Amino acid sequence: xxxxxxxxxxxxxxxxxxxxxxxxxxxxxxxxxxxxxxxxxxxxxxxxxxxxxxxxxxxxxxxxxxxxxxxx
Length: 72
What we know:
Blueprint: H1 2-7, E1 10-16, E2 21-26, H2 35-48, E3 54-60, E4 65-70
Antiparallel strand pairs: 1-2, 3-4
């Protein structure tokens, strides 16, 4: 998750499995004052990396962003 490391002031990897990655991130509140801005950054980074999967938003609220990567 290079995008997380690049955008955050600090991060903590809670759990990693074959299907799940759970992170806590701390961002600059002046730059990322909404969780939707964090999501947009991660989505742009994902597209830039030209991966085989598609990043989809499952849920975005004030404190949590839930994303899914679909591989076809």
